[in-house]
Amino acid sequence: MRTRHSYALAGLIALACGGGAAPMPQMATDPPAPERPDPVMEADTPATPTPPAAPVAAPAVAGLDTVRAGRFDNGRMWTFENPPSAYLRETYDIDADSVWFRRARLGALRIPGCSASFVSGDGLVLTNHHCAREHISAVSREGESLLDDGFYAESLDEERAIEEFEADRLIAIRDVTAEMDAALEGINEPQARSQARASAEEEIAARISEEYGGEDAGFEVEMVSLYNGGRTSAYVFRRYTDVRMVMAPELSVGYFGGDPDNFTYPRYALDFTFLRVYEDGDPLDTSENFFRWSETGVGSGDAVFMIGNPGSTSRIQTVAELEFRRDVSDKGLLAFVNNRIDALEAFYDMDPEAGEAMDLRNTIFSLINTQEAYGGILRGLHDPVILAKRRDQERAFQEALEADPELAEEYGGLIAQMAELQERKGEQAGGFGSFLAFASPDYEGAVLSRALFAFQYANGSRAGAPAEALEGVMTSLSEVPGQPPAMQELLLAARLRDIQASYGADSPLTTSLLGGRSPEDVAASIVAESVLADSAGAVDAVRSGTAGMGDPAMQLLGALISGIGPFQQALGPISAEEEQIAAALGRARFAVYGTDVPPDATFSLRIADGVVSQYDYNGTFAPVVTTFYGLYDRHYSHVAGGTGDGEWDLPGRWLDPPGDPDLSTPINFVSTNDIIGGNSGSPLVNADLELVGLAFDSNTEGLSGEYIFLTDRARAVSVDVRGILEALEEVYLAERIVEELRSGGN
Question: Which of 179, 241, 269, 738 is the residue whose CA sits 20 to 30 A from 38?
Fold first, then answer.
């Protein structure tokens, strides 16, 4: 499941990570060829054995020097400013002209952390259940638990407004590369160049926004950097803020199989939700551009096109960068996530009522999703065949640069320079696992977050900071969310364990923090003794000076700063150099390959082609589609076997449906489309732009897609529109929506 939290978490960890965060052994036979050839099902590489569940040292593999990069290792996430019309015509024999791409673009939406699409002429929107999960909880009224029980609005009047929700429709794209290059000409110092780029982007965005009437008119301009800054586009969005909840199934159906089935296939989840966009109090008229519902669906070998907003990939990172992630940064991130899951689950088990009030279930679900995703990413990074493919790709790129004297002079040494930067970062390895998401309201003990603001206030007062600035610090202090003492202890202990594991038990930093005690004992004493553990008295304590450096939490923070400060100071210049070299490498790749190689994902709209195709796994074949038969079999098998623990429990209306569902109806299917976080909720359409599926996940074999795109066994997993329609009609009796989907609305 690809969820919004991945990008929120990525933002929180940027301080420590500097931005950077399945392959297969030789199979006896290749997967059966689909009816319509998949352009990446070529002899990319020998397949390699499925890695174990946890990263381990990779065994020696013979013949790695014969491994070669594949044509589409960098993926097939094509941009709309450079639509692959000729490629689609050659590969699928479809006439994807400018009108086709315009319809595809205007039928799609970007919502917080996810993708979505218009599916009727009356502003009806389809996305994933897991993309709307927190909003389903938010529209619940007193005495309701819509997340557990589901929701269906019988009429327009019953559709519930979602607060603080934005849906963006991409209406125009402008290539502003020349303007950006002119603004940066002659600026070579890394930090100065970064500042100049930010300033130029702001000026260009403001100018274009003014042309459209600006935010007050409902428009938003976003500068999109492609090829690591080698190209820049201005994306103009029409932003809609009146969005309402229309229908959502129960959590047990939308998240059927729970954590055990996440990133797996065969799968049986109805991970869908319907929303509606309104304008001036009425449903938005989308009659000219929406995806009509296909009742015939898809079959093996059919071409399908995913239109969505993939969040972030690193397919043009160098091998040295990937090795650093494997050994340091991603390894530290996974340890951080594991620690926070343990802490939050322990508190939820201790006090479920408080956990529900804090919406901890959704936070834990999101972290577990990240845990599984990064587990798969790390397994891929430990796979020697994947790294061999990346080395071959890097070798070919270096040779192409050296073959052109001008390119060689400008770009020839960049890969080596990037490798040297990774060695310098390695000297700061301990910090990458110790300071992730420091003082984050979701992942940090509130007592430590308050100590940070108290420290800023005390320092500002001594330095004679303006009263307005000091009041701003106090406002931030007062807004730190309250946490029960037990939760503060668990999260603070998790932070101390991070540091102990990353720097070592005997390091000066660990010793200064723990003094020979356990993380749990130190956390308990600080929460018990610090005046900053109490949200009600923290502000007054800071103003009065009670929460001075003698306070236990302030003493702990002082010791932490002795580690964070040098880490930040060392990493800052390295990160600026990395950014500059990455941008130069992006320009170099564009100079060599042009638009034949798509840029990395940037949570901006892309179209990814693929085919519906089975694959071999576990000694057999994963089917193209799963059905309602499998849904019920999964339920009854686990319930009868006593192994379900609720993950495969079906709600009452499914065990005794009011209608007569056809159990042979497809519910999920797999295809070779290029998918990554942010694609959740993406529509899958056929060549006629009819909606055939709703993307919601990849299989576990596809998690290495973050840095390489392989399709011998990696698959995108989608909800089949036939399953959605059958559920609406026979289980939820949602005739209003069924009629709207079939007629197209209006």
Answer: 269
With a pLDDT cut of 70, the percent of the chain lying above it is: 91
Which of 227, 220, 219 lies closest to 180, judged by CA? 227
The CA distance from 249 to 728, in Å, is 9
Compute the chain's Rg from CA coordinates.
26
Tell me if residue 67 falls in helix, strand or coil: coil
How close are the terminal C-alpha atoms of the chain, in Å? 33
From CA 614, how far away is CA 625, in angstroms rounded?
8
Please write down the long-range contacts of 583-587, taking CB distance under 8 Å and 24 or more positions apart: 583/228, 583/229, 583/230, 584/410, 584/411, 584/414, 585/228, 585/316, 585/318, 585/411, 585/414, 585/415, 585/418, 586/226, 586/227, 586/228, 586/229, 586/230, 586/231, 586/316, 587/227, 587/229, 587/230, 587/411
Instruction: For residue 321, give the H/E element and its range.
Output: helix 319-324
Q: 222 pairs with which residues across the strands?
A: 235
The tens digit of pLDDT for each residue in 121-156 reads 999 999 999 999 999 999 999 999 999 999 999 999
Helices (H) and strands (E) in the chain, counts: 28, 22
Summarize pLDDT for 691-709 with one digit per residue, the tens. Answer: 999 999 999 999 999 999 9
Report yes or no: 484 and 572 within 8 Å, Cβ to Cβ.
no
The answer to whether 497 and 332 are in contact (CB under 8 A) is no
User: Could you tell me which of 536, 520, 560, 526 has the C-alpha nearest to residue 482?
Assistant: 536
Q: What is the DSSP letter of 327?
A: I
Contact (CB, 8 A) for 389 and 67:
yes
Mean pLDDT of 427-435: 96
Pairing label, strands 690-698, 292-293 = parallel
| Residue 325: closest CA among 262, 244, 381, 256 | 381
Residue 271 neighbours by CB under 8 Å, 6+ apart: 1, 128, 129, 130, 254, 255, 694, 696, 697, 719
Distance CA 304, CA 691 (A): 9
Query: How far is 204 from 222, CA to CA, in rounded Å?
Result: 10
Note whether 703 and 676 are within 8 A (CB): no
Judge contact between 589 and 227, C-beta under 8 A: yes
User: Which residues contact residue 110 at a Cβ distance below 8 angstroms, ignoring those fewer than 6 apart?
Assistant: 116, 167, 168, 169, 170, 237, 309, 603, 605
CA neighbours closer than 13 Å in the CB half-sphere of residue 372:
22
The pair of three-digit structure tokens given for residue 277, joined into one six-digit string:
């966009």
- Which amino acid is it at 494? A
Given a contact cutoff of 8 angstroms between Cβ atoms, the answer to whether 717 and 696 are in contact is yes
Beta bridge partners of 219: 238
Tell me the DSSP string of 542-611.
HHHT-SSTTSHHHHHHHHHHHHHHHHHHHHHHHHHHHHHHHHHHHHHHHHHHGGGSPPPP-SS-EEEEEE
Give me the amino acid identity at 212: Y
Structure confidence by residue, pLDDT tens digits, 252-289: 999 999 989 999 999 999 999 999 999 999 999 999 99
- Which of 342-376 are b and which e, b meaning 16 or more Cβ less than 10 Å from the residue's Cβ? ebbbebbeeeeeebeebebbbbbbbbbbbbbbbbb
Cα 229 to the center of its chain, rounded Å: 21
Question: What does the alpha-carbon distance between residue 670 and residue 266 come to, in Å, rounded to a whole number?
Answer: 9
Task: State how far the Cα of 325 lies from the Cα of 282, in Å rounded to an integer.
Answer: 49
E-strand ranges in 47-107 read: 77-79
The kind and range of the H/E element at 172 are strand 167-175
Cβ–Cβ under 8 Å, residues 208 and 202 = no
What three-state secondary structure class fits 466?
coil
Cα-Cα-Cα-Cα dihedral sign, residues 376, 617, 316, 421: positive
Cβ atoms of 47 and 713 closer than 8 Å: yes
